[in-house]
Amino acid sequence: MKTKKIGNNILFFEFKTQKDMALTFFRVQEFYESKNDNLLNKTFTVFDFIEESMDKNGYLDYFYFWSGFNVPGHIFKKWMDYDHGPNYFTHLEYKLLAEVIDNIDLNDKFYIIAAKKKDKMTFDHEMAHAFYYTDDTYKFQMDSVTYIIKTNHKHEYKKICKSLSKMGYNESVYDDEIQAYFSTEKKKDLEEDFKVDYDILRPYIFEYRAILKKSLDKLDIL
Q: Which of 116, 118, 111, 117 is nearest to 176 (CA)?
């Protein structure tokens, strides 16, 4: 695990393997935005997570499904300070906690992201989340584009939300996920994953991408 501070308030964790990344982030990520009410904002053990996430046939795809992770600072602090009881954190979670405490002023607004090494598309996706949380102007611009889709293309917006639900996202993060996916994903993936009419949404997708690119260009990142 390699840690890089971006700007004053974004902490990027770069991993060599999917296994280490998922095992480090799965509990704090589900604490933040799980669709499962037994996990969202709850203290849960590793066994609890497996029991809640595994289907009746024993199938659990979580640990290879997500290519990146992101957590807002106020959620991370809440998870960190929650009364979990003794021996709650794993050795990988302790490393995560130590890096955050050593590199971030917890009194300031901050954001945490993770992606695998050389996975630029996922990195950009997670940076879109970070900007959405830390940059009010960026959030306003992205929400303005999403609002037009909501009002002028309701059918497309409903399809997107339905797809996000199936992917396991909580409704509270839909608009954040929309701007992150549609500013970074390839046309083929957007059409397959969200069942959208790309030609209808093309001008809005280009606008999402332009807003993200402008924010990324301001930073000396990689």
A: 111
- Separation of alpha carbons 13 and 55, rounded Å: 30
Instruction: Evaluate whether 99 touches 183 at the Cβ level (below 8 Å).
Output: no
**Would you state the pLDDT for residue 183?**
98
Q: Are strands 10-15 and 111-116 parallel, antiparallel or unpaired?
A: parallel
Pair of tokens at residue 113:
């992201």
Nearest to 68 by CA among 107, 7, 111: 111
The pTM of this model reads 0.93
Read off the pLDDT of residues 127-180 as tens digits, 9 standing for 90 and up. Answer: 999 999 999 999 999 999 999 999 999 999 999 999 999 999 999 999 999 999
With tokens 């106020």, the residue in question is 74
Rounded Cα distance, 126 and 6, in Å:
12
Q: pLDDT digit string (tens) for 47-93?
A: 999 999 999 999 999 999 999 999 999 999 999 998 888 899 999 99
Helix (H) or strand (E) holding 180: helix 174-182
CA pair distance 174, 184, nearest whole angstrom:
16
Strand-pair partners of 69 = 114
Measure Cα distances from 2 to 11, 33, 71, 75 in Å: 10, 24, 17, 22
DSSP secondary structure letter of residue 15: E
Q: Which residue has the tokens 């959620």?
A: 75
Q: How many residues does the chain have?
A: 222
- Whether residue 33 contacts residue 40, with contact meaning beta carbons closer than 8 Å, is answered with yes
